[in-house]
Each structure stands twice: as structure tokens, then as C-alpha cells.
Amino acid sequence: MDAIHLVHAPVGCGYYTWGTRRHLGDGYNWARPGVLENEANHRRHCYTTAMSEEDIIFGGTEKLKQALLEAFRINPGARGAIIYNTCSTALIGDDIEQVAREVSKEVGKPVFACASPGFCGVSQSKGHHEFNFQFYKWLLKYREEHPEVCLREEEKTPYDVNIIGEYNIDWDEVVIVPLFEKLGLRILNVFTGNARFENLFRLPEARLSIVHCQRSATYIAELLKQGFKVPYLRVSLFGIEQTAKALRDVAAWFGEDEMRRRAEEIIEEEIAAIKPAVEWYRARLSGKKVAIYVGAPRVWHWTKVMEELGMEVVACMTTFGHRDDYEKIVQRVKPGTLIIDNPNEFEIEEMIETCKPDLFLTGLKEKYLVRKFGVPTLNSHSYEKGPYAGFRGFVNFARDIYQAVAAPVWQLARQDF
Amino acid sequence: MINQVKEIPVEGITYKSLRVKKKPLLAEYVPPPPELVPRAKRAVCIDPAHTCMPLGAMWATLGVHRAIPFVQGAQGCTTYVRYTFSRIFREPATIANASFHEDAAVFGGRKNLVRGVRNLVCRYQPELIAIVTTCSSEVIGDDIHSFLDEALDLMEEELGPEVREAVKFVVVNTPSFAGSHVEGYNRACREFLKTLARKSGEAGEHVYLIPGMMTPGDIRELKHMMELMGVSHRVLFDISETLDCPLVGMPNRIPYYPPGGTPVEAFVRAGDAQAVWALSPDAGSAGAQWLERRYKVPAYVVTMPIGLRNTDHFLRSVAEATGRPIPDRLRWERGILLDAMADTLHYTMMKKVALCGDPDFVAAATRFVCELGMIPTYILVGTKSRRAEENIRQACEEYGHQPVVMNGGDQFEWEYALKNDIPDVILGHSRCVNIAREIQVPLVRFGFPVYDRVGYQREPIVGYRGGERFLARIVNAILDHQYPDDRTHQ
Fold first, then answer.
1. Domain extents for chain B?
2. Is the pLDDT at B138 greater than 70, yes or no?
3. Which of A95, A126, B140, B487 has the fewest CB atoms within 10 Å, counting from its CB?
């Protein structure tokens, strides 16, 4: 989040990734003397080489290098940079890694080049995969060349952990991080929600990685395990039962009675705080049918959560689920549930007709379509009014679901005029 | 507790209660090196003021009845445009994609197009498919026309010869590196007419309007004016009933198609049109001019009818071309706009205004703010356009203003200028919110893209009535922002 994200591409690729999702941060640049910018650093500005026809014909590495050097001068608060190539710059064969090395040397800040042409994979899932592997490889090299970025022996504690695959959507981190801190852990890193470059270098120094999004980031947890013997634990941090289990699992991994006791205390305290609200919503949502269509892991994270609210999952779809995601989904849903891999609009419409859900958990692009069919929706990629994770986030989640289902508009739309 | 009529459940975590503290990345403000501020002197583009060509072509296609854009490229090229449309219109936007993977990058996108188009025809039975190319397919050098022939042969074999008649195809070449979304719309316009338009010899009864990237509300206002004029008209790329559709009464059948849109037939008959108006010179004039060259349809390229004079100019040209007088009803609406201008002059006169957006919008709005007695200071034209700059210069000369025009600049350059010479109000799109907040100046949203206001897409800014609404928004923004309450009650 304290990096310059420079998209080496024609203008659109950078434009669309600018301020679309709510991955939030707390590091700000100055707008004017005494005034901080209105949005955190990584969303406030969009840096791109905006390749022109000429650049495509003659190659864009020179332009990229110059652009990056300029970006560093214009944004002195940035602690490093990540450059991305896309379809067109990959096709013309621009060597972005070379540029990254040269500029990094020149400005004395880390620059990571991420090869991410759109045609390289089936979906953004391949992009996560590539980022994990490429970033890890680069990380090893950078640590070797700059040993000062590693955590010194005397700074380490036995309770240092990473939270992997947590992207701070609508400030989920504000809920999640304190839960683990109360256990007595020190969070070295969140990969990559509101992450700082200097912390990311210390990923290998943790004792344990706690993996939340298990599609996009298990890769790096696995690499850390292989390379640095940092074991990892998979957790789910949505809903009461799963969040409680996550805390218990982590405490059990450390194996200290004191921590186990603290985990129970936290769980008890949090449940007491949210129970009346959750029960209020549960009473009103019980028996409703819900269809879920999100990235991948959230489908199986949320199947449980919906059950906690008394709702019945009738259809599950993912954009980029892999085999293991589907295995988990199949384990968790009732027999007879419809499961579709990467559905198109037509299939979604068919699903609406056959399953007749009372609620559809989906993203921005599909929500307007199914609303036309009179089905309430909830933006499940970047949330309506998050955070949704953890115990207290669960109340937000339940509230937004209730608001979607209970709005009078759906009844009114069904009545004859 | 008093007045608590019903038990309200415990709120989760409200945004306020998050209490996230902003952390500065540096101890204090460091101004950017002055030599790097102008866009022309930089290789890096910061905060681009335009997006890519395919978006414009997809926008145009979605204004055609039962038409689907088929994007020959990787999935992101479609996904992000759909995001953008959904955010602006709060409506579904069905767009198909060739889903390029590595094999397409190596061997070309033939298979993707042939199979993709076939699937689309079988599943959706569209009346028209617009093949929209992207950076990648253009860099690879896909021969779209030959692919399309192959697809048609395949479909004829499989589905019978009717398929050739049932579905029309238009190919629009839109490599993003060669222009912006405005150019994409312009090209789509030309290609649609080139591919579809015919001249039957019989004189057609319609005049044609090419709106450019106006909102559904704007298009409805255009139709309203044409109706008052008594001119039988057709709007090409009419998104007013495709990207703004009711929830109630929607036929519950699949696949979902919005009920409206320009019928393909209207394009086919375009050669017979009485006259054609391009209401956004940079987004649509290529189509109008092509009709004029090919079929001798008189083409009028006019500035977008925002404000008094621009609307006058448009309506006068319609009156001249069709021989119809301007009716009293429109003169009444014009009078209302003038009345509103008179009533609010103390709020608008001598106010410094900065503008930002697509060339057609900005050029037209500049004249309007001049008419309101405002002083345009910094004008960012998102897509470089000589015509827009000329229009801006001309309007400003008439009213004696000398704004700085950043033609084809990026928002960083414009933002820096604004921070050093703060205007009283900004007219711009949703990407200007941060700047407006940071310099604490009201922002009046208009143009492309506006995605953070509900109902914007339904409120016209064109025509006299739209001008009155636009003026009210500007004045109310100024009132809300800088007038103490006791000075607003008169």
C-alpha cells in the first residue's frame, strides 16, 4: 500500500484498476501543506505508461524506465514500486524485469516486476498465483542483496505471525487483527491488505502463517513453509463458529494453556456482545434460500455462515474455483445443491428460474441483472457496508443480508398494479 | 427511550466506529518537481483522464436493440467495462468475450472467435453482434473478417442459411493504444453505418440523431425536443431504454434483453435519412460524415446542446433543415432557462470554475458557464481534440476569458494547477471527487464517468430543461458550500 503501482500498458488497463475495489489502507500522502490526501496512497493515484501506437511499434522499455523514475520523484513517500505488464506489453516483449532492476538500483528502493498479461491464465486466479510465486522469488533475492531488510534476531518474538490472504476489504482487518493480538500474537504482516513494503520483506521471519483466502495466497504460505519452515494454518474468519474455531486452532498450534484460556475468553466475550443481534436477524432470515456466487473460497466459507443464520444454500458458483475449492464446497453443501463453475449470465438466469433463491450473494456486474428478476442481492466482493469478517463483522453481514431481503420493494414489485 | 417505536437490533461496526487513523507517509508536504508537472514533459501518466477505445464501441453497441458486443481479447477487457457500465447505470450490461489464453496469443484468436460467436448466436439469438477488437488481438494481427466468414459458414452448416439474415455483424477495430473511449464510440458509429446502412431510393421520413456518450436522461430530453418540434426522428445508439430499464413489468424470460434500443432496421434505412446530426463532434461525427459522403445525407456536426446558445444552435439547424418552426413550447422552456439564469446570477457571476471531462462535454459546458457569467480557469480535455479546443477558445473569446486549456492532459497536471489556484467550483466527473475534497471546493458532476451519484444518469443536462437542471445543480452546490444560511433565504 505504500508502493507505486505502475501499469505498463495502454491507458485502459491502468484506468480500470484505479479505485475500483475497496481494498483500503491507512498510509496517506500530503495533498497540500497541512492537508492529507483524501484516499490512501495506493488508490489515490493511478500510474500508467499509457502506451501509444508508436510505443507499441518501437517498444516501451525506455518509456517505462523513464516513467518509473519520474513516478518516484513525484511521489517521494513511496517505499517502493510494483510494475505490471499486460497483454499488449507482454506481446511486444518488453523486459520489465530489467527495468525494475535498473530503477531499483538507481533510486535505492525496491522495485518488483510482476508479469501479468491477461491472456496468461483462465482468470484473475492465475494472476494471484503468478504474483505469489514471482513475488516470493524476488523477495528471496532482495533479502539476499539487502540483508538489512530482514528482521534482526533480537527483534523476533516467539509470537510473530503472518496473516496471509487477507485483503482488507472494507476494513476487515480492523476486526481480524485485534482478535489475534488479544491472543498475544504479534502480526508481522498482512499479505497484502494495507501491507507495508518493509513488512513484506519479513514474511519468512514469522513462526506461523495464518491463511485466510486459501485460493489466492496458499501458494506463498506453502513456499514459506518449504523455504523457511514457516508452517501455516488454514482458517475461516466469517461467522461465529468458524471464527471461534480459527482462534482455537491457532491457540492449539502454540499449545500454551494460557493462550487457550485467552481464546476461550475472547470467544465468550465476543459472542456475548453479538448474540442478541445475530439472534434477531436469524429469527427473520431462517428458512430463506440463498445462492452464492463469489471468487472461490468465500463460497465455502459462507455456506457455514448462511447456515448459522438459518438460511438454506441452494446454489453455489465460483468465478475461479479450482478442484480443491469444489471439493470443499461439495463437502459442505446439502445434496441436491446446484453447483456451477464460472457461470455466464445465461446460466445465472437459469439458476434463478430453477432454484428461485430469496437472496443472491454476488458481485457488482451480476447484481443488476438478477434484480431485474426481482431477486435481492448483496455485493459480496467488496461488501455493501463492511467489514463482514470476524465476530462483529458478522453482525454487519447479517444486517446487510436482512436489509436486502426485507426491503419492501420486492413485495411491491410482485403486486399487481 | 423516547420515540423508540420498534426494537432495533444491535448495529455491527459502523464506519465511524472503525476509527482508522490516517498515517502520513512523509513528515511534510513535498511539492512535485515543477518540470514534471506538465503532462507533455512526462513519460508517466498519472490519473488518466480517459479510458480505452473498446469501451466506447461497447457503449454504442449496447444502445442497439438485441445487440451484444463480442470482445476479441482477454477477459479483463470485458469485465472492467462491464464494471464501469454497472457502476454508472446500475443496470446489467451483457457483453461477450473471446477469452484469450496463451494459445490465442501464440496461434491467434481464430478458434476463439469462431466458436465464441457460434455459442453466442445459439444461446442468445441476438439480432446484432459487434466484434470489438482489443490491444492484444490487434498486436497479434487477427484477421477478423476472415474469422467471421468462417464462423458464418460453420453456423450456416449447423443452423441453416437463415442465420445469415437473422444476425448482423459489425466489426469495430479498437486497439486502445490508438485512441480513447471517445474515439472508440466514433469508430463504432462509422463502422455500424458503413456495414449496415443502405439507400433504397425512397425518401425516408426520419431525421437521425447520433447522441455520443450522453446519458439516458439526455437522450430522452433530445427526443422530447424533437417531439415538440414535430420532427420524426430516430436516435442511433439509444441507450435510454437499454441502460435504464424498469424493474416492474419486466418479462420474466431468459435470456434477459432490455426492451429498448435502436432497431437494426434504423441503421439499414440510414441511407434514406432526411438529415443526420452528430451531437458530439468527437463521438459520432465520423458516422454522420460517412453518411453524407456515401449517401449524400446532409450531416450537421454540432456542439453538444448544453446551455442556451448551444441548444439554440442545434434547434435552429433542425428548424432550417426540416423547415419546421421552433414551437412556442420550446421557446417557453428557453424562457424558463433564461429566467433561472437571471434569478441566480448573483451566485454564478465571476465565480471561478475549473472543468474536466471528455471533449464534447467540456467544450459545450465551457460555453454554458460563460453564459452564466462564470470564469473558466483550468480546462482539462481528457482526450486530445482540436475541435473541442477551438470551441472552447471561441466561447471564451466571446466572453473575454483566457483559461488554461490542457488538451489531452492527465488529471495530475490539472489537479496541481487547481491546488495552486483554487477555483470556486469544479465541473467534472466522479474521478474529481478527491481533488474537490482536498481543496474544499464543491464538485458538480457531469460527463463520463459519474458513478457515485444515484439518478445522475436520468437527469438531463442537454436542452433548455436540462440546462435549467444543470444550472440548479451548480448553484445549489455553491450555496451548500460557501453561503452562510442567513444569506440563502431570500
1. 53-196, 207-244+257-327, 331-487
2. yes
3. B487
**Topology at the third CATH level for domain B53-196:** Rossmann fold (3.40.50)
Q: What is the pLDDT of residues B13-40, one digit of tens each?
A: 877 788 889 999 999 999 999 999 999 9
Residue A290 lies in a domain: yes
Is the CB of residue A236 less than 8 Å away from at least one CB of chain B? no
Put simply, whether A320 touches B (Cβ < 8 Å) is: no
By Cβ distance, the residue of A67, A92, A120 closest to B44 is A67
CB-CB under 8 Å, B36 with A73: yes
Q: Is A319 on the interface with B (CB under 8 A)?
A: no
Give yes or no for A240 touching B (CB within 8 A): no
A368–B86 CB contact, under 8 Å: yes
pLDDT, mean of residues A95-118 = 96
Q: Smallest CA–CA separation between B429 and chain A, in Å?
A: 14
A285 and A399 assigned to the same domain? yes
Residue of A266, A258, A260 lying closest to A240 (CA atoms) = A266
- B contacts of A408 (beta carbons < 8 Å): none
Q: Given phi > 0 = left and psi -120 to 50 = alpha, else beta, which region is B49? A: alpha
Q: Is residue A341 classed exposed, middle or buried when 0-12, 13-18 and 19+ CB atoms within 10 A define those classes?
A: middle
B133 DSSP β-pair partners: B72
Cβ <8 Å between A53 and B90: no
Q: State whether B248 and A413 contact (CB < 8 Å).
A: yes
Q: Is B139 a catalytic residue?
A: yes
**Residue A233, domain CATH:** 3.40.50.1980
Answer yes or no: is A203 within a domain.
Answer: yes
Number of domains in chain A: 3
Q: What is the pLDDT of residues A235-287, one digit of tens each?
A: 999 999 999 999 999 999 999 999 999 999 999 999 999 999 999 999 999 99
Q: Quick check: B9 pLDDT over 70?
A: no
Number of A:B CB contacts under 8 A? 274
Q: Which three cell numbers stand for residue A154?
A: 533480537
H/E segment holding residue A238: none
- The cell numbers describing A266, all together, are 475472547
Q: Which of B135, B396, B405, B475 is catalytic?
A: B135
The nearest alpha carbon in chain A to B109 belongs to A119
Is the CB of B82 inside 8 Å of chain A's CB atoms?
Answer: yes
Distance of residue A222 Cα from the nearest chain B Cα, in angstroms: 26
Clarify whether B135 is annotated catalytic.
yes
ipTM of the complex: 0.95
β-strand partners of B67:
B128
- Domain boundary residue, one of A120, A143, A162: A120
Q: Quote the CATH superfamily of domain B331-487.
A: Nitrogenase molybdenum iron protein domain (3.40.50.1980)
Question: Which class is domain B207-244+257-327?
Answer: alpha beta
Give the position of cell 476472415.
B146
Burial of A385 (0-12, 13-18, 19+ CB in 10 A): middle
